[in-house]
Amino acid sequence: MPKAKKHRRKASITSSSLTGVPLPSGSSSNPSSTRTFIRQFHVLIKRKAQLQRLLEEPRIRKFDEQDATRKELASIEREITNLGGLETYQRMSSIGQGNDRGGGSEKVLIGWLNEFSEPQRLCETNGRFKLLEVGALKHDNYAAHASWIDNTPIDLHSRHPSIKEQDFLLLSEDQNRSKWDIISLSLVVNFVPEPKHRGRMLQLAHTMLRSDGYLFLALPLPCILNSRYMTPEHLQDLMQNLGFTQMRSRWKEGGKMAYWLYKKTAIPSHRNLMPYQKKTVLRTGNRNNFCILL
Ligand SMILES: C[S@@+](CC[C@H](N)C(=O)[O-])C[C@H]1O[C@@H](n2cnc3c(N)ncnc32)[C@H](O)[C@@H]1O
């Protein structure tokens, strides 16, 4: 008698059998489970973006290929919903990042601006810095500095009426050209699933900053220390080619976060963007795939 075929359910791409770690309960504030949740969420949104891109490409013409891609996309979207979606991700991020960093990254930015005596200089002119805080989990991160910082917090999903629900990538370039004194991209570039969209984010930040304006960038440390495609030197070259001069940077071996402060300068006249237009393996071994493309 022929054996009955076993129908196994396809494993979720973030299930414990694949990641080796148990799924956290959405409400847990245990540091390792919040980190696991955040990683899982990133895996899911990256796969979702890949599948959406595949469906737009004419190369999958066969109906069954398209059908399989659509089904996988639906299943990924279900997994994202089951995890609680962007809302839960934001909640877990605010808990997890508090644990990892001992507070928000605004402290680092404020510390650096103080080193450059920016508050004192603004005081003399009665001016205030116009800050665009992209990816704001809280509305009042800069409230203590309201005398010299006029903050506009935005996010894909607003958690407070004062946070504008807005995709930075969809802001009007014309309306924002040279408008901002500071743009903060803290843990936002790594959230964006498509490497080209990450590059676009940095290019847009350049367009939207006034000349000499500041870009504050924060990334998880493994993005530069343990990526196949990104090293601190590669990031430095990429930023220079975009017209950013590094003023400060901070991370420590074994730490979790890396921070940079750049100043907008002129775009180099003989810049070469070729090295940043496709993925190049810079390190081999067991690495992550973080990459920024232009
Ligand atoms: C990990 S949280 C970072 C929050 C905070 N900036 C911090 O440093 O803790 C990333 C946030 O960026 C937001 N985000 C990602 N892409 C964005 C975009 N294109 N425009 C606006 N917000 C974005 C997400 O919705 C999410 O709330």
Automatic annotation (TrEMBL):
Biased composition (Low complexity): 22-33
Keywords: Methyltransferase, Nucleus, S-adenosyl-L-methionine, Transferase
Spans through the membrane: none
EC number per UniProt: 2.1.1.-
Statement: the UniProt record of this protein carries the keyword Nucleus: yes
Source domain of life: Eukaryota
Protein family: Belongs to the BMT2 family.
Name this protein carries in UniProt: 25S rRNA adenine-N(1) methyltransferase
